[in-house]
Design a protein that fits this description.
This protein is an alpha/beta fold. It folds into 3 domains: about 5-115, Probable tRNA modification gtpase trme, domain 1 (Gyrase A, domain 2, 2-Layer Sandwich); about 135-215 and about 395-455, Four Helix Bundle (Hemerythrin (Met), subunit A) (Up-down Bundle), CATH 1.20.120.430; about 225-380, Rossmann fold. It has helices at about 30-35, 95-110, 120-125, 130-140, 145-155, 160-185, 195-210, 215-225, 235-245, 290-300, 320-330, 350-355, 370-380, 395-420, 425-440, 445-455, and strands spanning about 10, 20-25, 40, 55-60, 65-75, 85-95, 110-115, 225-230, 265-270, 270-280, 305-310, 335-340, 360. The strands form 2 sheets. The protein has a 7-stranded mixed beta sheet. Helix 6 (about 160-185) packs antiparallel against helix 7 (about 195-210). The chain is flat, with a radius of gyration of 29 Å.
Length: about 450
């Protein structure tokens, strides 16, 4: 059964109370369905339907004749709609009773409930957008900062699509030359030399590698950076969390071991979203609960994008400090010397020798001194200065994996060219690279991939 021919309907606004709610329909029967349940302010049924016009009236239960709600009806006829199908949006009062009542009426009229992301999926299948643009829709909805929103908008406008399509077009040209040398090897036609094809292929490979290098930045802008605060007990980790949040989120006492488990919060530093985690203090003594908290801290460190290691500047280094320093030395690390408002006795030269290549900041978490410099350092460590919202970044593991496959295929093709291998081997690898790039934009796709992508969408989008 081809469900793509059905007319679908869904509530497109969040559940709960609000000033307005929207029910959306898409499909060839959407206008006819609405004609059967809508009357204008004079109580008359719709006769002539004009595209991209808003009509004021009421939704009426066709069985009882009872008015359900006062609404605005917007009709967008194909192909000038989001899905390139006939689309109708019913704007009613934003409560669950009117919304569900209207949705039930249009379903009785012949629509079926939409699946998650089905409106956007139809826009893709009908050729209005490609797969990267479809994925950007959910990124816009879920954006957590101005930078992540601007990046998602850039993708929705086709920035990444154009980059991938340009590479794919170049590969099509290379493949055409390689295959021509196979099919017309003995005929007098103009075929590019293998040296020139090698040069073009190496340029494509370099562009793929450049895109791959943007993944970590793109993922951080899209998802946020997993930021772990570590240190022994009572160095001020919870005070730092509270200072960065500008609120009392974590309990702060002079008693060592107050934080027994990790506390996770979200902050925004100049458009970069941080998932910041205050961990249990690390010390070799302590009861079972503290030891379990320390075990979890070690687990969190494995997936951290950035580690903020805190030391107490008013005390000399302890064995616990040195143990932590060894544990985090190979991490993406910032060293923080806390409590600079007190007399400093910490062995600063030893710390500098251990972390000569790491950023180091002195602060007072309780006095909120030095926090601006620390925030700047966090931002600089996470995002390259060359990265701007206008940069083309890859943000999804699906894109990364496809680019890695394309990269390997291009390396194989280049190796074959250099070793004077048969054109058949070169053509196979070039075509494989093309297919991998096509997976990103949806020029080549499987139903399983589509279902996985759109299952993450909300119903009604």
């Amino acid at each position: 059964m081809n469900t793509s021919q059905d007319t679908i309907a869904a509530i497109s606004t969040p559940h709960g109370e609000g000033g307005i709610g929207i029910i959306r329909l898409s499909g060839s029967s959407s206008v006819d369905i609405v004609k059967g349940v809508f009357v204008d302010v004079r109580g008359e049924r719709l006769r002539e339907v004009k595209s991209h016009r808003v009509t004021y009236g009421f939704i009426v239960d066709p069985e009882s004749g009872r008015r359900i709600d006062e609404v605005l009806l917007t009709v967008m006829l194909a192909p000038r709609s989001n899905t390139r199908e006939n689309v109708v949006e019913i704007s009613c009062h934003g409560g669950m009773i009117p919304l569900t009542s209207i949705l039930n009426i249009v379903i009785k009229g012949g629509a079926r409930p939409a699946e998650p992301g089905e409106f956007t999926k139809r826009a893709f299948l009908n050729g209005r957008i490609d797969l990267t643009q479809a994925e950007a829709v959910i990124d816009i909805i879920r954006s957590r900062s101005d930078l992540s929103l601007r990046m998602a908008i850039r993708h929705m406008e086709g920035g990444l699509s154009k980059e991938i399509s340009s590479l794919r077009e170049e590969l099509i040209g290379i493949a055409a030359q390689v295959e021509a040398s196979i099919d017309f090897s003995e005929e007098d036609i103009d075929i590019e030399s293998r040296d020139l094809l090698l040069e073009r292929s190496e340029r494509v490979l370099k562009s793929i590698e450049t895109l791959l290098k943007t993944f970590d930045h793109g993922r951080i802008l899209r998802e946020g950076a997993r930021t772990i605060i570590v240190g022994r007990t009572n160095v001020g980790k919870s005070s730092l969390l509270n200072a960065l949040l500008n609120k009392e989120r974590a309990i702060v006492t002079p008693i060592p071991g107050t934080t027994r488990d990790s506390i996770e919060e979200m902050i925004n530093i100049d458009g970069i979203h941080l998932n910041i985690i205050d961990t249990a203090g690390i010390r070799r003594t302590g009861g079972y609960v503290e030891k379990e908290g320390m075990r979890r801290t070690m687990d969190l460190l494995k997936d951290a994008d950035i580690v903020l290691m805190m030391l107490d500047g008013s005390e000399r280094l302890t064995d616990d400090d040195r143990s932590i320093m060894r544990e985090v030395s190979n991490k993406n690390l910032i060293v923080i010397i806390n409590k600079i408002d007190l007399l400093q006795v910490i062995e600063i030269d030893e710390i500098k020798r251990a972390f000569y290549d790491k950023r180091m900041y002195t602060i007072s978490a309780t006095k909120k001194t030095g926090l601006d410099r620390l925030k700047d350092g966090i931002k600089e460590l996470l995002i390259d200065k060359e990265i701007t919202p206008e940069s083309i970044l890859i943000t999804k593991i699906r894109h990364k994996e496809a680019l890695i496959r394309a990269k390997e295929s291009m390396k194989n093709a280049i190796e074959s060219m250099k070793n004077s291998m048969s054109e058949e081997f070169i053509a196979l690898d070039i075509n494989t690279a093309m297919e991998s790039l096509g997976e990103i934009t949806g020029q080549t796709f499987s139903e399983d991939v589509l279902n996985k992508i759109f299952s993450d969408f909300c119903i009604g989008k």
